[in-house]
């Protein structure tokens, strides 16, 4: 749609600013169980125009209400009372979280249509597999998966609102501060149900610097000085963490993890239902979010492939939500990006190419690292590559099933396999901090498990007789790849796998590769 095209072209910063602004005009209401939507909106409209709203299930029904004007919130707050409870004493912090109950529930008989509730989590894998079997190609299977798992418009609004509510606390101490989401909430690769990573930002926007030039004096604030930035970060997070813990409505299980490489406060935000991680401004993490945002916007195949590979990895236990020696989703995403840079012609540009396109305002040097790349999507030429997702999925498994991990590392700046600078089993260069390996945590057994699963998946896709499987009502294509090992309904699969050494698979793949290369040449030549 045209609307989608126009949203697609916005820069990362524009989208962020727009969403943060939207969140400031938003309130969250815990609703009575028998609710007449029309009456609620009618009442709220007496405080100002309601620009958008939706309902969702979260231990009862909640409504997110976005007003056109921020002043409507003050007007509503004036009308809201402090809870009267005999058994508790309340902390009198007035937020943008309200509870509405009906004054005389009996008389207000509920007429009208039932509420439409926006889902805030994705369907279970077994339900997904059933849906995938109804598709007509692997490509459409991958888009179905993407549609089921990706963040919805409503869920994104809720994420920004959670940040905005935390910001209200931070502003009690630091009036200029903002709280912004980073990582999967904003990089177009977030899936429903994922945590919200947020950071506290004290950077005064540029308008301040110009004022300082005027007048005969150098002027600066007197501020408390501490021996290191890390200590300042720890103290700030410690206080904000206590603040959320003591006064934050619906902030529970607050944990301060201040000795981590990146100090943070973890907490559950019950009103929005999110698990949140709050840290202090990390410019490099934001550049990574923006880089992925650009890649995600350039071509629809990018997100479809990333979501598919991540789901596949999770089903087979290659990734895990707990930290450990397995591959992280971030590393996996970077491997997909690298694979897409290596296609011929490439589907996405290398980071060095994006840096070439950068102009003055895109220049970012952070801690001595050059993190510059173009922000305007229109300056990036669309790819000439027309490979289908059916082809790309199989090729991804082939590529990494046969990748020389002993010798080579993955470098997204150059889009080339380069010699490993040190002996970690899996070496993926941090795109910005060039001396770091983002997959340093991965050990040899985990990497071998990944390679074995990639080979097996390539093999399943190659062997497959789709028509036969559809006739036999067996899962096919992507659905077949998402059945955990040992859970396969057909014992045929196990028998096929018995006695096939990895050498046999490799020679099989090699012969398939030749055929595939030829047929691909034809496809591209068309």
Automatic annotation (TrEMBL):
Residues 391-426 form the PAP-associated domain. Keywords: Magnesium, Metal-binding, Transferase. Its cofactor is Mn(2+); Mg(2+). The keyword Hydrolase does not apply. SUPFAM superfamilies: Nucleotidyltransferase, PAP/OAS1 substrate-binding domain. GO terms for cellular component: mitochondrion. GO terms for molecular function: metal ion binding; poly(A) RNA polymerase activity. One of its GO terms (biological process) is RNA 3'-end processing. InterPro entries: MTPAP-like_central, NT_sf, PAP_assoc, RL. Residues 138-296 form the Poly(A) RNA polymerase mitochondrial-like central palm domain. Residues 11-79 form the RL domain. This is PAPD1 protein. It comes from Leucopsar rothschildi.
